[in-house]
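thought: fold this chain, then report.
action: predict
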Amino acid sequence: MTKRDDEIDAATKEIMRLAGMKEDELEAYFQSLPPDGSSTKLVADLMTKPACGYRGIILARAEAFYYDDFKSTYEGGCPKMKLVEDLNVAGYHDLAQKAIDGEYD
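observation:
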């Protein structure tokens, strides 16, 4: 077997392991993953903005992966659209544009 075959085999095993998990096990698994680059970048960008009441809410949501396409607990179905909405409500229009441009994907 080649190294590539080993990688494919390992990925297949991981997919099968995840496919066999119950919903609550999957939720715990995804919540245990380290922060991804996009969530970390969003938090860093938010910290450069003037504080407002809504910034704290957005920060807490970002740190909890609320806007993450895969880990989100947002029930509206499209967490990135919610992020854009929240950033615009807070007056952070430049960050909203960054979200639209895919910088927080």
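thought: worth noting. Residues 42 and 48 are 10 Å apart (CA to CA).
final: tokens above.
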